[in-house]
Amino acid sequence: MTSPSAREAPSLRRLNDFLYGTGVIVSILLVTTLITVAVSLIYLEKIDVQESEILRRINALAIAIQASPDLADGEATEAYRYVRSALSESSFMLTRRVALRSPTFVTEEAALAYRETIRKAAGIIRENRENIRRGASYLNLALLTLSTLGLLALLSAIRSSQRVTRRYLAGIERGIASLDELMQNKTAELPEFPGSSIMELDDLFSRIGRVSSLIQLDHSMGTLSGTGNMNLLLRQVSDMVKGFMPCDRASLAFIGSDSRVTAEAVLTDYSSLGIAPGYSEPLESSSLARVALTREPRVIEDLSAYADKRASSLSTRLLLREGIRSSLTVPLLFRDKCVGFIFISSKRPHAYSESHGRELARIASAVGHTIYTEYVIQATIAETTNAFVSLMSEKDNETSLHITRMSHYSYIIAREYSARIAQLDPSFIREILWFSPLHDIGKIGIPDALLRKNGPLLADERRAMERHVEIGERVMSVMDTRLSAILSRKNLHTALEIIVSHHEKFDGTGYPRKTSGADIPLSGRIVAVADVFDALTSKRPYKEAWTVPAALDWMREGMAGHFDPEVFSCLESGLSEILEVYEAYKEV
Fold first, then answer.
1. β-pairing, 326-334 with 260-268?
2. Helix crossing, 522-536 with 426-435: angle to 10°?
């Protein structure tokens, strides 16, 4: 007879799958809504400024014509040119259907007719502005409605999942209670189980205990979800593992978008680490590639013997230096794709067996979704926000390849800084890669004519251009506030730092706040170096590309005081890897 808990299991799995899928969709929908609302507010502000300027110049034209009603003189023609200039620099949505010819009349009647044309043009401009505002309101309302419906669906799924989970756990608890009762009387009952032994029953109850612990672990993971602290999540896994297998070292790594495996969190019973958080190596050149392909646990019984077979493996040598002699690795799977690994290691050889591998795989299956969700939430936010970066290539002289290069340069510099100067949290290094493309997102609020100007900017134009930092900060702050209300923590802190500080200079002469030295966030100092290096070594409509030696010399001497010397030294020490990125994504 099938137990109630067994009958509930398929429903629970289906509900959990639906719950996770709905959660991802709702998260993306909410982020899209917040971004759309923020961008529409900026766009509407821009439209208001453009409308005011156009109407001001149209009014000046009307006054000039009224001063000479029987003849279109030079003053009226000059005023008309200003109107045409304002129309050409404004959004098409604001100026559509506006047709205004040159004032060439010679009679008072023609002047009156032309003034009527001017009045109609002004009316169309006002009508277009109202249509834009109305359209933005409808779009925002539709997205907010969809987001609300999505949240209601998510809450309904959560309630259903909780009901089924309670019934499922109640069934398991009844089963454990029955087996516990059997355990109390196992000696008397042995004759009814031919071939059984106390040892076999002990093993059975040991496994039942681990199932109960696994349920508790899953519950603990749920309470920690949303904290963004991988060390706390790994600690929960480590504490459970130590109950039934040796564990001197536990670690967690993810496969990034650059196909590199990066250590995210490490917990040890000792302090000297060879492989610390942030350690990274390409997946394809690592033995982990096979684990990712087969999706099966890997047991290395004797790490010393294993190192003899793989003399080129730096990670193996570093683990031996820590004193590790055997290890167990299981893949973290998400929808049948390997996204990372859990490592359990011991200082004694032959510490693990295939049964240990199966047990750890069960743990990874139970908690992997929580661990990976913490990782993927940030990745989703980064990819969603970076979708707007592609819009900048339509407005700006900067190219999408520039964005790709400078973000990878920033990532390499951050890894060099962590290895050479001071250890950085791996999540911070990852966020440098994810969020550095957003550094100039505020340019979405700068007029196209100014962004596309070939040649140096005038003083007032430069001041207008510098406003992109303020605009970008305002957009990202709104997004971060809205997201933190949903996810209970700040997710765009590094992105905000980069936007606000990437134009600051180490000597305090930058903008917008003239911050200096270590008061400038490290993320901003890193992106500033990467951005300028790529700008110098890339061809633009107004200049040729500099050679790498010339660019480095100029940044070191001609721009003395601009950059953090330690960060600049990391650019130089990572130059070989940076040049590989340059060759892969150079302008053709």
1. unpaired
2. 40
CA dihedral 551, 555, 556, 561 (to 10 degrees): 180
Residue with tokens 């536990």: 250
Residue 453 burial (C-beta neighbours within 10 Å; 0-12, 13-18, 19+): middle
Which tens digits make up the pLDDT trace of 249-271?
999 898 887 788 888 788 888 87
Helices within 185-258 (DSSP H only): 186-189, 198-224, 230-241
What is the H or E stretch that residue 255 is in?
Answer: strand 249-255
In this structure, the number of other CB atoms found within 10 A of the CB of residue 272 comes to 8
Which residue matches tokens 């959560």? 158
Average pLDDT along the chain, 588 residues, taken 10 residues at a time: 46 60 70 75 79 81 73 74 80 78 74 80 83 80 74 68 64 60 46 44 48 50 51 80 88 85 84 77 88 93 88 84 94 84 94 90 78 68 65 59 88 91 84 87 82 81 90 86 66 89 95 95 96 90 87 91 96 93 80
Cα 331 to Cα 79: distance, rounded to the nearest angstrom: 71
Pick from 123, 94, 131, 99: which is nearest to 448 by CA? 94
Residue 347 CB partners (closer than 8 Å, separation 6+)? 248, 323, 324, 325
CA-only gyration radius of the chain, Å: 32
3 state DSSP class of 422: coil
Length of the chain: 588
- Quote the tokens at residue 420: 């050479």
Residue 501 backbone dihedrals phi, psi, to 5 degrees: -115, 0
Distance CA 350, CA 346 (A): 9
Q: How far apart are CA 492 and CA 476, in angstroms?
A: 7
pTM: 0.53
Is-contact 139 40, C-beta < 8 A? yes
DSSP summary character for residue 506: T
Q: Is the peptide bond between 512 and the residue preceding it cis, with omega within 30 degrees of 0? A: yes
**The tokens of 411 are what?**
């990532």
What is the bridge-based pairing of β-strands 298-300 and 337-346? unpaired
Task: For residue 180, give the amino acid letter.
Answer: D
Look at residues 452, 307, 323, 428 and name the one whose alpha carbon lies nearest to residue 378: 428
Name the helix (H) or strand (E) containing 118.
Answer: helix 108-184
Judge contact between 332 and 371, C-beta under 8 A: yes
Distance CA 227, CA 306 (A): 38
What secondary structure, in 3-state letters, does 522-565 show? HHHHHHHHHHHHHHHCCCECCECCCCHHHHHHHHHHHCCCCCCH
- Cross-strand partners of 330: 342
What is the distance between the alpha carbons of residues 545 and 554, in angstroms, rounded to a whole number?
Answer: 13
